[in-house]
Design goal:
The protein has 644 residues and is α/β, with parallel strands linked by helices. 27% of the residues lie in helices and 20% in strands. The protein is built from 17 helices and 25 strands. A hairpin with a 5-residue loop joins β20 and β21. α9 runs parallel beside α10. The longest helix has 33 residues. The radius of gyration is 43 Å and the shape is globular. It starts with 8 loop residues before the first strand and ends with a strand.
Length: 644
């Protein structure tokens, strides 16, 4: 019986008693080559390729396998053995034999391995798709989206040279304080050279220069560099609708209304309601610390030369490093046709984008009254103009007698948020044009109102001094507030003039008489609470996300809104903030003028208190806090994280 491994060349060894006998009886030899698989063949046939010598008792063949290419081994001439070789190949095997005797066990094992690999690969693809979809529910955001801005009137923040006016150098000195608030940007109120700055800061006489009370252009450039070095951004307020009547353009226009500047300004009839001087309405209620003088004239924005000169001014400040503009009183912009307004704002957008980069976008903020005016006029350019804007600024008009009016204001903002997914809502409680928060509200509710503001959907703007309950300046003899009293100098300590100025100099606007208690040193606990909440807000999409998702992300969980304002009897506000796959928060504020006890089991079953103005609550779990009987004093607020 012969066995063969199936090498490329076989050597056959035969034996004989007579060498010549092989040649003589060669006709009786018959070689049959068979190929088989390693499996045994039916009938007991041995595997391998073998050569059989048939019908001869004198010859017994042996097959010796040699590597391909080696020479055959020769036997001695006297030996009874003779050697001969032949070629053998699997290709000579019949196809049916080759098919039925293939290594099927190995093939089955290989197919199983391939199947497992494909299955694992499909699982990885599905897992990656699910995780990526979850991460896409939290879209990337720009530096202005969902962040907090700190609004500063530079002349009232810090005086560095003892002249009684805040300046850029003083602001640079206080940047550390601003940065500790965890804000993303600093918004500077009007810094332009004005006729009687800072009291008449709106009477601008040069849009390409800073007022001398604040410093020089080089001081502003150093300020911007320091702000950027701290990872913050700079937003500049500008009112492009009017100038002082002492502006060079106005002087030429008034001198010769048929000359080169004849189309720079327009006559505005106050009786038509286009412009109302609020100073006239407050004449009997406010004290004037200085004698105001000079008037204002409205620019004609339909005139190409006005557009060119004002756009040149905007570009000037962009070249100085400004990251965006807040266009104030835009609803009063004078244009002849609606299309002129579209052209003006389109040029602004192009100019901002020109100085933007992949890592930093320059933004455009507009006041809500501007868009509301367009809506009332049914402007056909409303959507187009809205798409040019990055932020719509809303003032939260909070009324203690009816705090649930908050829902109405949120609904209005939601409508605009849905109208333009790319435009964000910005909320503020006060600004350079409004009476201060602490002057309007009882001091017991100032902090709770600010904390409520910081959990509203969208971006937030804080007015300097609100964190220390700063009040309007007033005359200590008459008790009347000063005109522009909301621009009261910042109160840092309880020392003379609150450390706003030095050398015994009187500040340009009197310090509020309550400076001994309302100052940064004395309000450190409140300031810390606000900065901690801003830090939490910065990292949690449940808090910084705007009210309505855009069209793509709305499919994350089927709910487009990120908040629920629960109705409650009386003056208690209960607000929930959430976002898919992220934390869920509940906020409770008592605006009643008395302590209240509330059952919160309707809203949450278990939660962890993060912030509270009630010292008895502290940091504990709702289940340990007897959630069905929660006591809140007047003005108390708490913010809790829940897993419900």
């Amino acid at each position: 019986m012969d066995r063969s491994i199936g090498g490329p060349e076989d050597m056959v060894l035969t034996t004989s008693t007579n060498a010549k006998m092989k040649e003589k009886d060669s006709s009786n030899l018959s070689l049959i080559s068979k190929c088989s698989s390693t499996d045994s063949e039916p009938g007991g046939q041995e595997p391998g390729c073998s050569t059989h010598l048939l019908e001869s008792d004198n010859y017994q063949p042996f097959i010796i396998h040699l590597p391909y290419g080696r020479q055959s081994v020769s036997a001695d001439t006297d030996s009874n053995y003779s050697l001969r070789t032949r070629k053998s190949s699997l290709s000579s095997c019949p196809l049916d034999v080759l098919f039925f005797h293939w290594n099927w066990a190995g093939m089955r094992l290989g197919c199983f391995v391939v199947f497992i690999c494909v299955l694992v690969g499909m699982f990885c693809v599905v897992l990656r798709s699910v995780t990526s979809q979850t991460s896409q529910c939290v879209p990337s955001r720009g530096w202005w989206q969902g962040t907090v801005s700190y609004e500063i009137f530079p002349a009232s923040f810090q005086d560095s040279d003892g002249d009684g006016y805040g300046d850029f150098a003083g602001l640079r000195w206080r940047l550390g304080y601003v940065q500790k608030q965890n804000v993303a940007s600093i918004r500077l109120n009007s810094i332009f050279s004005a006729l009687d700055y800072p009291l008449e800061y709106t009477h601008v006489i040069d849009f390409k220069n800073v007022d001398p009370h604040l410093g020089r252009i080089s001081d502003f450039e150093e300020l911007v560099q320091d702000i950027h070095a701290r990872g913050l951004h700079v937003i500049l307020d500008i009112n492009p609708t009017l100038t002082s009547d002492q502006h060079p353009w106005a002087a030429h226009w008034q001198q010769n209304k048929s000359g080169e500047y004849q189309h720079f300004y327009v006559e505005v009839n106050k009786s038509k309601g286009k412009f109302v001087d609020t100073h006239e309405n407050l004449a009997d209620e406010k004290e004037n610390p200085n004698r105001p003088f000079g008037g204002q004239l409205f620019l004609n924005w339909s005139h190409p030369e006005v557009q060119r000169k004002m756009n040149s001014a905007l570009e000037f400040w962009l070249q100085k490093g400004v990251d965006g503009f807040y266009i104030k009183n835009l609803e009063l912009l004078q244009v002849g046709l609606e299309r002129d307004l579209y052209i003006v704002m389109k040029h602004w957008r192009i100019l901002l984008d020109k100085y933007s980069s992949d890592t930093k976008k320059n933004i455009l903020l507009v006041p809500f009254p501007f868009l509301q005016t367009l809506k009332e006029k049914r402007s056909r350019f409303l959507r187009s103009l809205l798409n040019f804007c990055d932020i719509i600024d809303f003032q939260l008009n909070f009324n203690l007698s009816n705090p649930l009016d908050l829902k109405v204001q949120l609904n209005v903002a939601d409508e605009w948020s849905a109208l333009s997914p790319s435009t964000w809502i910005n909320w503020h409680l006060g600004s350079a044009e409004t009476t201060r928060l602490s002057t309007r509200l009882d001091g017991n509710y100032t902090l709770s109102t600010m904390l409520l503001l910081l959990v509203l959907p969208g971006s937030i703007s804080l007015f300097y001094g609100d964190e220390i309950s700063l009040r309007d300046s007033l005359d200590i003899f008459t008790g009347k507030g000063y005109r522009e009293g909301q621009l009261c100098p910042m109160q840092w300590t309880f020392s003379t003039e609150s450390n706003f100025t030095k050398n015994g100099t009187l500040p340009w606007l009197p310090i509020n008489p309550e400076f001994s208690s309302q100052n940064v040193e004395n309000k450190s606990a409140e300031i810390s609470l606000i900065s901690q909440l801003i830090a939490l807000r910065n990292k949690s999409p449940s808090l910084w996300m705007k009210a309505i998702y855009d069209g793509k992300s709305a499919i994350c969980d089927g709910r487009p809104f990120t908040y629920v304002l629960h109705p409650d009897e009386g003056c208690v506000i209960i607000l929930e903030r959430y976002f898919p796959t992220k934390e869920r928060y509940v906020v409770g504020v008592n605006f009643e003028r008395k302590p209240v006890t509330i059952d919160f089991t309707e809203f949450v079953s278990e939660a962890h208190i993060l912030f509270s103005t009630n010292k008895e609550i502290g940091e504990k779990y709702f289940k340990d806090w007897k959630v069905q009987n929660v006591s809140l004093n007047l003005g108390d607020v708490f913010i809790a994280e829940t897993n419900d």
